[in-house]
Structure to design on (219 residues):
């Protein structure tokens, strides 16, 4: 398996391909750690996995034109929407999996930036449910 | 007392489930791909639903519009037509 440098990742939000307006993607998955330690001769803590807690973080390059970033995200505020991410543009395969999540669009920054800087919007949206991984 | 019977039948363009059933196709009008379809291409309602898309948000944000081809055609009633 080859190492990979992300250059051509794919991001869709509400089925809209926003890849060329996204500069950073982080799909997080963690599980609660539930302790099950009891008296035993091992003298070590034992644990099992609890509830999953998933989220996705994206950094957008802001654009206010019709059909662009702001127009796509703003109507979704406060709703659940599907987000998909894939390491490389092209067919979905075992080495280029497609991850699909249902996110709560819980935050949005319509305007962000300082003088002379690119207008961007960084978001972290909690996932409702599991992360689905497709390999074909 | 006169008793009249009326019979109604649903045509292909009639809907019992609201407007969304009628608008079975949507055209991509923005420069961004929607469900893998480019500007000018047509998306079916099923494709959008399978992708879990919020159709109202896609319309508001200027990505898609109802395809003219899918609009129901209402023909004027002909004189003397039987009910």
């Amino acid at each position: 398996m080859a190492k990979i440098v992300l250059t051509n990742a794919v991001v869709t939000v509400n089925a809209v391909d926003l890849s060329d307006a996204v500069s950073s993607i982080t799909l997080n998955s963690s599980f609660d750690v539930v302790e099950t330690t009891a008296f035993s001769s091992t003298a070590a803590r034992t644990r099992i996995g609890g509830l999953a807690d998933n989220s996705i973080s994206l950094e957008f390059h802001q654009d206010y034109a019709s059909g662009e970033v702001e127009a796509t995200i703003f109507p979704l505020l406060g709703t659940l929407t599907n987000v998909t991410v894939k390491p490389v543009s092209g067919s979905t395969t075992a080495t280029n999996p497609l991850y699909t999540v249902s996110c709560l669009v819980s935050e949005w920054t319509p305007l962000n930036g300082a003088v002379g800087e690119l207008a961007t919007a960084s978001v972290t949206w909690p996932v409702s449910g599991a992360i689905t991984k497709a390999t074909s | 007392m006169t008793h009249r019977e009326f019979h109604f039948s649903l045509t292909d363009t009639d809907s019992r489930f609201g407007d969304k059933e009628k608008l079975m196709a949507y055209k991509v009008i923005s420069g961004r791909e929607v469900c893998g379809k480019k500007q000018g291409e047509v998306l079916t309602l099923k494709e959008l639903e399978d992708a879990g898309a919020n159709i109202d948000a896609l319309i508001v944000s200027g990505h898609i519009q109802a395809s003219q081809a899918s609009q129901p055609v209402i023909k004027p009633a002909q004189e003397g037509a039987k009910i």
Chain B has a mean pLDDT of 75. The beta strands of chain B are 25-28, 42-44, 64-66. The first helix of chain B runs from residue 19 to 22.
